[in-house]
């Protein structure tokens, strides 16, 4: 089992034959075109029944009169073939109706993709694939669809990916990096996008692309080269209108554009003193005749100027977007990362969700574990996402759950939803580790229905991906459910964010880089105090970006939850938490507790030997052993760092005292050269 089949293995069910008589013997898929999702759904049913139950069924494409059948089709096609239905629910786009009570069994969709209605219309993945085939923050090999600047000819894996995504309700994939490249827009690549769309379409998955804002002046081969990219310049408008039409000729159902502008070195409208809304609307207008939408990223900040101690990157989105509310075209959605900084292990919900009621909004989640162990650490993310989706922002003192904001329900928008950064690669596990695929599965399930319980989703995934053996389900559940709290504890608790190296790798401990760079992920730690004061009264004012009830909660140290204390407040190391512990001692205790929990994962995993296939067993075991070791590196590096900086002893005398640790210098080094590690706390005796 390489992992390639993910949760669509259709593993044989023991005693499957005993169900044969109660299963229908015919499948009717009401579409004759093999490129249609309904046709493909018929084939999937056939394959699933065969593989799970050993039952052979024929697939027909029109009503064959047989009563013992499963019919799959759109509601419209069904009524044409079988006559009208009583009691069908009202379906929205992509919604479907499944009845096993009727004869024939009905699986009917509002459209070909689709009595479950999705919670939000936009359920996309973002893939940060570069045209050269590399993937930014991808941990599973190279791109499945790009190589050497063009779109590859063999798109088999791309089609397989679409199949996986379809099964969890994802309806579009943005295929290239948000840090985009203008040469995506050459005629050759536009033709290639057409091919990607062709292999995804039978699964009901559309293609979207990221745009490079200054493409008109980038000398794109086969396109006009302008001297300006000013969004209000007529020649620029015409340029994008033309390119957009060319794309729609190849991809008539293109989902839309994703745009990262004026952030981290990406060009944008501010160069011409135009607003971000004017920039977004340039693309919105080009897309309107074709029905596409613009996902405009709220991740806008100017890192290079943030040398001012009081500047707070967390405020940037509010500063940029709040004044523009109401100025975005109807087909623009503001795509907002879940927290105000950047995919950290713990962040408060982005207050932008509460501040642009007139605009469509989507939440951006990260399936790829950029800051969260990069698939070398198991971190099941659904519980983290749920803390945000279920958070009540109390806009106008009324219930305003983030999930109701992005579904469009809270502020009455018909557009909104979810963007998940996945970054699948050519590796057979898709994202780099077998267990990390629970995150992709959970992402799709939550985008369809954010009220689902994290553990429920997880167990559904375990049964499909591994098996239903109770000990398999229980063990994997325990490891996964303990994984995010453990990672948070050993990588940076109390709202410190993930204390990784933030200069480039975002992997492994390096707390000192937090305060020594211009990236704005500060800890503000000195010899006596730690934490970032984001209050209105004394700090950066960030807390005031929330509606009054929430602002008041975070403004006050007494009502700020311990797990976000240092996110909002700057305190003495000896400050007492709600738990009664001091900040520094809790820091030590939790880093030890988190690493201790991670030690148990490998042992628990070992109890699964023989209960799952060896290939996946050993692959994951290797990762759990690695995580056990690396969690100690984390624990010691962070604890030592804060011990050195604060000078406060660990009451349990563990910090700096690791009798069982084998130091590198006491080993025979073969083929290694000692070098000085910075910060030294992350090293063995400085090297
Ligand atoms: C940061 C990543 C960087 C991305 C950026 C973004 O480190 O690679 O380009 O986010 O989301 O987290 O645009």
Task: For the structure shown, list the relevant keywords.
18 helices, binds beta-D-glucopyranuronic acid, single chain, 17 strands, TIM Barrel, 687 residues, 5-stranded mixed β-sheet, Alpha-d-glucuronidase, C-terminal Domain, Chitobiase, domain 2, 32% helix, 8-stranded parallel barrel, alpha/beta, 10% strand, 3 domains
Give structural notes.
The chain has 687 residues and is of the alpha/beta class. It folds into three domains: 94 residues, Chitobiase, domain 2, CATH 3.30.379.10; 338 residues, Alpha-Beta Barrel (TIM Barrel); 140 residues, Alpha-Beta Complex (Alpha-d-glucuronidase, C-terminal Domain). The protein has 18 helices and 17 strands. The protein has an eight-stranded parallel beta barrel with strand order 6-9-10-11-12-13-14-15. Strands 2-1-3-5-4 form a five-stranded mixed sheet. α11 packs across α12 and α12 packs across α13. The longest helix is centred in the C-terminal third of the chain and has 33 residues. The chain is globular and about 80 Å long. The mean pLDDT is 93. Beta-D-glucopyranuronic acid binds next to loops.
What's this model, at a glance?
The protein is an alpha/beta fold and 687 residues long. The protein has helices at 37-53, 75-82, 156-167, 187-200, 234-250, 276-287, 316-321, 352-355, 382-389, 402-406, 437-448, 454-465, 470-491, 512-515, 548-555, 565-568, 583-606, 614-646; strands at 26-29, 58-60, 69-74, 96-99, 105-109, 122-126, 146-147, 150-151, 172-174, 206-211, 256-259, 293-297, 332-337, 360-366, 417-421, 529-530, 571-572.
